[in-house]
What does this fold into?
Amino acid sequence: QVQLVESGGGLVQAGGSLRLSCAASGRTFSSYYMGWFRQAPGKGREFVGVISWSGGTTYAVDFVKRRFTISRDNAKNTMYLQMNSLKPEDTAVYYCAAATGFSFTQSDYTYWGQGTQVTVSS
It folds into this structure.
């Protein structure tokens, strides 16, 4: 069992930065691949990126690839999403999730956080 709690969301102006954190409970955090998803108002939840259990491999979708960076600190049971050059279209609830394999698919993720709101003003 893994419990996930996101934090770090808030209101920021376009061009600004935020760093989201995803804190995990349980001693098996380091064995999970961790993903970030987001859900904008009126839209479905979409994949943002994923990081391997060791942190050695990451993947982010094209629309955030040069702006967002995923990292993790297994000693702290925490994953991060550094978001730079934020745009109004990045406004969404951001979720972290845990999976046993490297996946872009929501259904492959077993554990989910409650989400944290990110709002980017123009």
Q: What stands out?
A: The chain has a mean pLDDT of 95. The chain is about 0% helix and 50% strand.
